[in-house]
Amino acid sequence: MTTAEHELKQLMLASQDGDAAAHRALLERLSRHLRAYYKSKLARTGRGAAEAEDLVQEAVLAIHLQRHTYDPAQPLTPWVHAVARYKLIDFLRRTRTSRADVPIDEADDITAHDDHIGAESSFDLRRLLKQLPANMQCAIAAVKLDGLSVAEAAQRCDMSESSVKVSIHRGLKALAALIAGRTEP
Fold it and tell me: Is there a contact between 11 and 22 (Cβ–Cβ < 8 Å)?
């Protein structure tokens, strides 16, 4: 474990125990790391520092609100990085940047490596998936959850490869809308 990881983890543990000074210190240090992370990611899409700062604030707020979900037996930085990635993905979806400016290979890097998924998240995802049409459920489950290739998913779901891609794209957009509390199909 690196020194920075150890220090951040100790601050998080103290924060979870109610130490307000440790909590402030944790959020300040994480803000610096998150700011650099978001600036580098958004620079690729032509976005500026103001949007990076907005994302820093969203991520810090999420970390603050969800700190009780952090498992002390696990490293802290992957948990923080997962929160940061999800906030970035949400932002890119909201601004429609992901479709226009982020290469699909990079989108895979952002979404494919889940460092910290618990049983609750899996249950919530399955419950959300059930709200989608069957073809979208099958395509998303096969490719995004089971790790199959598009060709393998097409066979499993009895669809063409292009239909699998479209179903995944539309299904993820619908899931984002459901998560955001909107009712768009």
Answer: yes
20 & 67 share domain:
yes
User: Is residue 74 located within the same domain as residue 7?
Assistant: yes
Question: What is the spatial distance between Cα 102 and Cα 91, in angstroms, rounded to a whole number?
Answer: 12
CB atoms within 10 A of CB 120: 9
Do 102 and 124 lie in one domain? The reply is no
For residue 173, the enclosing domain spans: 119-179
Q: What is the pTM of this model?
A: 0.51
Name residue 153's amino acid.
A
Q: What's the token pair of residue 117? A: 């998924």
The alpha-carbon radius of gyration of the chain (Å, integer) is 18
Asked whether residue 184 is assigned to any structural domain, the reply reads no
161: exposed, middle or buried (C-beta count within 10 Å: 0-12, 13-18, 19+)? middle
- The Cβ of residue 147 has, within 10 Å, a number of other Cβ atoms equal to 10
pLDDT digits (tens, 9 = 90+) for 61-114: 888 888 888 888 888 888 899 889 988 888 888 776 444 444 444 444 444 444
Class of residue 176 by CB neighbours under 10 A (exposed 0-12, middle 13-18, buried 19+): middle
- The beta strand positions in the chain, using DSSP E, are none
Same domain, 65 and 123: no
